[in-house]
User: Fold Class I SAM-dependent methyltransferase from Streptomyces sirii.
Amino acid sequence: MPQKSAVYTHGHHESVLRSHTWRTAANSAGYLLSSLQPQMQVLDVGCGPGTITADLAALVPQGRVTGLERAPEVLAQARETAAGRGLTNVRFEVGDVHALDYPDDTFCVVHAHQVLQHVGDPVQALREMRRVTKPGGIVAVRDADYSAMTWYPEVAGMADWQRLYLRVARANGGEPDAGRRLHAWARQAGFAPEAVTATADTWCYRTPDERSWWSGLWADRTVDSTYARIAMESGHATEEELRRIAAAWRAWGAEEDGWFAVLHGEILCRA
Ligand SMILES: C[S@@+](CC[C@H](N)C(=O)[O-])C[C@H]1O[C@@H](n2cnc3c(N)ncnc32)[C@H](O)[C@@H]1O
Assistant:
């Protein structure tokens, strides 16, 4: 089976999980929710710390959700989240989306949130997601688009953050502008264009609490996470440059008129 592996750019440092654990089915998978039915079997690929996975499990109380992750170290937190909510219809497994260890036609819904931007071969990933989806079932994917992220006001150093992130993510084998490409990847993976509904959606951070949270986690990621280590080891940035970018994030967060929008592409594909 053709397969390319990419390095997961963010890793699972606390500053990264601060962002992932904020996510809910409502704020990250709204485009899918009206298609869910209580008895459905759902696969959540690249589930990370599992807050969206747990929400999906609560929405299919007579069904079952499987959270799949390539990084085993984050699954203890995912299991804890599900257990803390008293969910008994969710399980977590280690695996790689490029080669799913499930028979054809296993799931009613196969979902991936912010995953395909990080994989080495997103078309192969979608082929696999399609293969394990029952005929008539749904493949649902949502990814950000880093070049389309926009903010106000312009603070010195923020554009450097965007340029550096794009370079590091691509050097790791990913595609940070995945959002705009999802529908094209779905076609290449074998979905007929009329079987794919493509939409776009945003997260927007504006209030003092939102700005403080978003700028703080990016400032910390920039100097402390796997991303920081990779950026330095691969020669894309010096420690000094990373510190400057982290300071730019904090300066933006302190701006009274600060506003930040994250654009996402979304696809709902009928198998
Ligand atoms: C940005 S996180 C998203 C986590 C979760 N879906 C969410 O939105 O909160 C991407 C996750 O995909 C996982 N991942 C990356 N490559 C993968 C692969 N080839 N197969 C399965 N999971 C993968 C990473 O380990 C990481 O936990």
Remarks:
- The CA atoms of residues 150 and 261 lie 5 Å apart.
- The chain has a mean pLDDT of 95.
- Residues 208-224 form the longest helix (17 residues).
